Structures are given as structure tokens and as C-alpha cells.
Amino acid sequence: MAPEYIIEMNHIRKEFPGIVANDDITLQLKKGEIHALLGENGAGKSTLMSVLFGLYQPEAGQIKKNGEEVKINNPNDATALGIGMVHQHFKLIDVFTVLDNIILGAETTGKLGFLKKKEARKKVIDLSEKYGLHIDVDAKVEDITVGMQQRVEILKMLYRENEILIFDEPTAVLTPQEIDELMEIMRGFAREGKSILFITHKLNEIMAVSDRVTVLRKGKYIGTVNTKDVTKQELSNMMVGRPVQLEIVKDVAKPKDTILEVEGLTVMSKIHKKEAVNNVSFKVRQGEILCIAGIDGNGQTELIYGLTGLEKATSGKVTLCGKDISHGSVKVRNEAGMSHIPEDRHKHGLVLPFTLEQNLVLQRFKEKEFHNKGFIKFDAIRNYALRLIEDYDVRSGQGPITIARSMSGGNQQKAIIARELDRNKELIIAVQPTRGLDVGAIEHIHSQLIAERDKGKGILLVSLELDEVMSLADRILVMYEGEIVGELDPKETTAEELGLYMSGAKKQGREQV
Amino acid sequence: MLRLDSETGKAKWYKNEGTKSIASALVSILIGMCVGMIIIILVGLAKPEISTKGIMEGIKIVFLGVFSTGRAAGAVTFGFNPVNIGNMLFRGTPLIMAGLSVAVAFKTGLFNIGAAGQYLMGTMGTISVALTLGNSGIPSFIVWILAFTAGVVLGALWGCIPGAFKAFLNINEVITCIMTNWIAANLVTWFFDINDQFKNGADGGKVGYTIPLSNVDVVTPRMGMDVIFKGSQANGGIIIAIIIAIVVYIVMSKTTFGYELKACGSNMHATKYAGINSKRNQILSMAIAGGLAAAGASLYWLSGNTEFFWSTYQTLPADGFNGIPVALLAANHPIGVILSGLFMAMLNIAGLQLKTLTAYNEYIADIIIAVIVYLSAFSMFFKEIMNGRKHKKGGKI
Fold first, then answer.
1. Which residues of B touch A335 (CB under 8 A)?
2. Lower CB count within 10 Å: N or C terminus of chain A?
3. Contacts of A50 in chain B (CB under 8 A)
């Protein structure tokens, strides 16, 4: 008789200096099932998967495949056992093309060692068509969107024909339609007899696609349940350890004066020689959350770059708090009243080799409070950092002196949000502020944004997640191919209608607000 | 969730990055010395004229070169040798400055391989100003200051060139540095070629040397160095170099300016996002690096008793390039640079001692330096070993 489990991880223990990341964790994966792994940031999900993938050696415990104990010393061992993984932070080479990235490490070569790129290309294109994972095989990874990079990662695994597939937060950057497609693909895999480990914090997806769920909390094993036996609320309570507010509660917005006025903003694309943002106009008022919805890569990134001064706009006028900042530098814009929670927290948000406290004063170190004639007041920075860490619940190994790189994604994001909100500016631009975060952290960030709104701040939110758009926004603008194709009221519209605008199927002639 | 040492509130000393840097530098040095020792033994065994005693002497000199005092009764003797130690301080001065130059650039994310060219520009500035204004009635300490400043400014401007190419056109500074090195070499050669007033014609038969600055009495004060290290070339230059190193340390680690430079070096995108002028900072760090390398040249020539051989278009000054291992060995720490610079100078002196006191030649010291340079590039690797390799993937919390 075949063993019941294809992969068993029994009593895994993994320690890092000062912390037990995995404490006696057991995970059993059946052949052909979709098994979700649920837990907050820092619960030990990624560590556990890294153990399975051979990146870490556990201090205790054993791993079995088909009932036989195996030793996984490195990712090559894992690959040999048919284990493939899509990492949360992509492992791609920026200057290689999509095709090169996919075949890297699994190249098919002719007798003389030359690459058989044609065959590989065909296989990749077939796979991408079969599963609806649209990619441009000849584009360089550095030029494509985060969403497409994700698809490359998934294709990498498909290309290797792995039988045990680990998805680490795979849906974070996909559109609702793409998520549905991915869910379908995953079910297809399961039907083909492949086994899937699905790391996520999105309860909807777990309910929709998984067969069983294992919940971890703070490095400990909480339990494994059959998905059909539990509710979303029960799962989130298991994960967080306390009852969680799943629905966003907020009062009706009371918008006041206009803070930000954008007129005819046009920004050129860096990849293609055409306008990424084409003649866009809108206003943000005090006390409202204006959400820019749209599928990834429709000009949202460039719009924000143009607004914040990271890229030069070709034309258009931007007025912030009555001041014309169309040609102002980033600094001028910051000082005029702009806070910016950036889309890419590693590229723009943080200086990763710096400590947490150094990162928390990234814009403010030149303020009087933090220096005396050019000499840094280390005590002032330490105290400021300690206050932010306390107020915004930023968790890290060594507090203010933790190196930013060693913090978890959720806490890196919390640190950026702490820094930006505490600067107390009139306009808060938040680009995908909850990307890749878990329920607890999302709840926290959402309530903070609403609190800022209620304080009278204007909030410009860019989000790819329909749920977030529908529940957080007071007003929705939909962007499609660099233009704003619709303005919607979340109370009067549906997710389906929003989806039609996002995909360009619907368009409205829009009056200025 | 603070996880600091429960008693002191600080990270434990042996987990300190600085401790690890020092330890890894010492490991590099130790291995380099051992390789040198092995070479000495092998050469000694291969050459019949070198006895076992000769081998032992060779090893002793490599380790204690600056303390060798000559030969007495057929044996090499050791003790306090003011000449050697003074000369070590003298030769260490430009090495420290070049090391600081490379270290500052490294800290700001740039690789300054152009220290040699900046050194030459500093040489040109200092020597021409000192020789022109010396003996012209201006008090010599003012000429000294002007000559030093001219050298530093020229070097800083020379450093700006690769900085500007990097900032505005995103051209890798290594390429522009190599090019500006050779441009500087030819420019300096040409400059002294056409300016006869700087040529040393006094000593018959000497071609291609400039007049020593002691002739015009523009010389760094000895600051008591000649008393302590009698008979050596040591002068106040080493004290100035140490002061500059301390200033660099303070600027880089205690000021907002240093914070800004380092932030730009670590993540330009983030500094741009934060509204810091990263282009300006890149040019500034290269200017500082250039000024530091040039200051090394100025201090060297202002010692007075050295003559500059100005046909440099064929070879670039080694001191410029030796700044790289000096900085690497010190893990780019300005205070560490003082020690690693002096250490390099010490090996140099040991090489000379090998030549004068034993049957070996001075190139063994060069081999040891080469091995250390090689290993200092591995200092990251040693650090990782000391971190127990557990941190390899960064324990996420």
C-alpha cells in the first residue's frame, strides 16, 4: 500500500540566535491535495518551507518522502526530490530575459553543450498559454512588472515538472481574474496528482481552493484542520490567537478642502516609448480615501512616480496644499506636505544595510531635533525610534539597532508606515500598503489609514486588491492603459463592475470632480 | 521585542561587527605571514649559500623587521631601532591617506581605483606651488599651507570627474578612474617637461627629478619626530595624517553629512525617494576621496627630502593602488586604516632589512603583501565563518 503522505515533516525545530522560529512543528502533505499553511508574519511559515527546500537545516525533527526519511541538504536535493518553490521574494536575475531565467539551472543542451533555446522557448510558451500565465519571454526581468515576475516564478516551477509545489504567497500581486485562474491551475495540478503547499494569509483563497489547513502561530504548531469543517472567522482566530475584525468598520467620509490637484499629468514609460500615464486629472480632498484601482502595469506606478517626483512628468500641473509642485524636487514635495508609502519597500522604502533607527529618520535626519550643527544626536534618534516602534508595533530582533534587511516583510512595511504617518503630512500616498502582509497586519494598517483619514488627511491609495479597494475607498478611480476610465462610488458599484472597468471592457466619459 | 544583552543593553562585544572585522584582518595578516615564512624556508633550502641560521634570521626579520638593529658578532640583533620605526611612519603617511581615500569611497558605494591619478594631481599642485612661491618672501609656513591646499584641491577636482560621470551619465567609476589615472600621468609628465624651473639641475647627471622642497625651505615641521626617531625621515606628516583619519571617522559616523553619504552608497533609490540629492553626494564623495589621496602626495613631497621623478607616464605611483589593500584590511574603518597603513609600511621596511641584512631579497616582503591583499578580499568570508554561517540567509523574525 502506498504511504498516506507524500511529504511528512515531523517535529521540526529550527532556532536562530535569540529566537525559536519553528518549535516542534509537524506538517503532513497528502498526495494530490492542496494544503494551505497559514500564519501571521513571523509565525515560522517561511522558515519551515526553507527547511523543506533545503535552505536551512533543522535542529531537530525528520523529513519523510513517501514514508522514507530523506535528508535535504540544499535546494538541489529538494529539486531532485521533485520539490519546487515559488519564493515570496523572487529569485530572478534582473538582467536576464524571462526565458533565460526560466531555463536557468534546468537547461536542455545539445551534444556539444549548446543551449537548445528553441525547444525551451516552445515549451515555455506552451506552458504559459496552457495556464494563461501571460509573459513576454524576451523581455528582461528588470523591465517587467512585479506581477509578471511572479508569473515567471510560477512558470519556472512548471518548467521543471515538479510534483510537490510550494507557493509562498503567490497571489499577492495578481489581479482578481488572475487569482481565479491560478486557483483553477492549482486545482488542475491537484487533479494531475501533484501536491501543493500553499502559503497564504488570504482566508478567501484558503476557503476556495485548499483541502486542509495547517496553522502556525509564533513558531508553534496550532493544528491541522479540514477546510470544509471550519469558517473563516475560526481560522483567523486560530492564526492570530484572538478574535479578529475581518470587516472594515468606518464612518462615512466627510471630505473638506482639496489638498492635491492633478491636471493633465503625463508621464512617459521607461520601458516602451509611449505615455505610461496619459493626461490624468483628479483631486484628493481632506478626509477622504481616494483609491486608484486597476490591473498591475496600467500606469499606476508611473503616476505615483510622477506625483512624488521620482520621475519627471512630461506635462501637467500638480498642486499640493495650494503650492504648485509640478517641477519641484522630491524634497520640495515632501516638505509641501507629502508622505509616500512606496510600492517597492526594498528599492525605495528602506536602506536595507542600515539599522531600523537609521531608516526611521531617512527624511528627517536633517531636522533640528536630530542633529546639533551637523552632528547626529544619537540619543534623540534612539528615543524617536523607540517611540515609533512602540506606537506602531514594529517587531524586530534587536529593536532600533536591528538591520533592516533581517526584518520580516510585514515589519519592514510597518516601519515604513510608522515613518511616513509620523511625519504628519497632509497627503498620504500609499501604494499597495498591505502587499504580502497577513490578516493581523492588514487589519492594523487599514485601521491606521482610516484613522488618518478621520484626522482630516487626504489619502491616495493605489491598490491591486479588489477587496481592499471596495472596503477602504471613499471614491474609486479606475486606471486602464494610462488613463482614468471611470470614477465609481464603492457603495453603488460591485466588484464585477469594477472588474469590467479594470479590464478595459467599460469606460465612462468623466467630468472633473 | 528587544533582544539586547540583558545587563548592558548593548550587543555583546564578541558579536560586534568591529571585533569581527579586526579578527578577520588579523587572520589575513597571520596567513600572509605564514606564507611568507614558508617561502623563506623553501628559498633557504633551495639555495645552498643560505644556512639554517640564515633561514631563522630571515623569518625573524619578516616578523620583527622594524626592530632589527643590524649585525653584531655575526648574528642579527634586535631592539628599538629609531631609524626603521621613523621611516615606517614616514612611508606609512601616504599609504594611510590613500587608504582613507579608498575607504571613504567604499563606504559611499564607490570603488575609487583612481587614487593613483589623484595622488599625481596632488603631487603636481603641491610641488609647483611650493617651488614657485618658496623663497619669494612669503613666510614658508604660509607657502606650506598654500602648497598643501593646492594639492588637495587639484586631487579633489580630479576625483570629481569620475564622480560626475557616474552621477549624471551612470558610467561606472572604475572605468573613468582608470582613464583619469593615465590622463593624470601624462598631464603631470607634460607639465614638468615644459616647466624647466622645477627641474633639479643642481646634481649633475640626474635627469627627470624635481627640485626637493627643502631647497626652498617649504617643509613639514618635524614636530619632535626627529628627536624621537633620530636619523629617520619621520616628520609631522604622520601626525597630520592621523588627525585627518580621526576627522574622517567623525564625519562619516557622527554627522548627518556622513549618514547621507553612506545612505546614498547603500541604496540610491531610497535616498532619491527620501529627497536626498544623491547625484551631488556621489560627486562629493569622489571629491573627498580625491582630496584625501592628493593630501597623501602633498604630505609625502612636503617632507622636503624627496625628489619627484616626473616621467610618470609609464608607471603610476604604487601608493595610490596600495590604498585599496590598506582600506580592505581595515574593513574601511578610518581608524583601522591608520594601523593597516602603518602595517603595510612596516612590511616594506622589513623587505629592505631582508635585503641589507640577509642573503634574501626585498621581494619576499612584496609576496607577503600580495598574499595579505589577496586574503583581505576574503575578510567577508572570515567574518561569515565567525558568524557561524547561521546568519547566512538572515534569520527572519
1. 275
2. N
3. 393
CA distance B77 to B316: 37
CB-nearest to B273 from A21, A342, A397 is: A342
Q: Does residue A395 belong to the interface with chain B, where contact is any CB pair within 8 Å?
A: yes
Is B397 within 8 Å of A333 when comparing Cβ atoms?
no
Per-residue pLDDT of chain B (397 residues; tens, 9 = 90+): 333 444 444 455 555 667 777 777 788 788 888 888 888 888 888 888 778 888 888 888 888 877 877 777 777 788 888 888 999 999 999 999 999 999 999 999 899 999 999 999 999 999 999 999 988 888 888 999 999 999 999 999 999 999 999 999 989 999 999 999 999 999 999 999 888 888 887 666 677 888 888 888 888 888 888 888 888 888 899 999 999 999 999 999 999 999 999 999 899 899 999 999 989 999 999 999 999 999 999 999 998 878 888 887 778 888 888 898 899 888 888 998 999 899 889 888 888 888 888 878 778 878 887 887 777 767 667 766 766 544 444 443 3
How far away is chain B from the Cα of A193, in angstroms, using its nearest Cα? 32
Spell out the domains of chain A, with CATH numbers in brackets.
5-240 (3.40.50.300), 258-502 (3.40.50.300)
What the block records as the C-alpha cell of B313 is 607616464
* Interatomic CA distance for residues B156 and A206, integer angstroms: 61
CB contact under 8 A, A350 and B275: no
Q: Domain coordinates of chain B in residue numbers?
A: 91-341
Closest partner residue to A408 (CB to CB) among B262, B273, B396 is B396
Q: Which CATH class is domain B91-341?
A: mainly alpha
> Any chain B CB within 8 A of the CB of A47?
yes
Among the partner residues B256, B269, B395, nearest to A376 by beta-carbon distance: B256
Q: Tell me the backbone φ, ψ of residue B88, rounded to 5 degrees.
A: -60, -45
The CB-side HSE value for A128 (13 A sphere, CA atoms) comes to 22
Cα separation, B76 vs A106, in Å, equals 63
B393 at interface of A, judged by CB pairs closer than 8 A: yes
Q: Which residues fall within 8 angstroms of residue A173, CB to CB, at 6 or more apart?
A: A146, A147, A150, A296, A435, A464
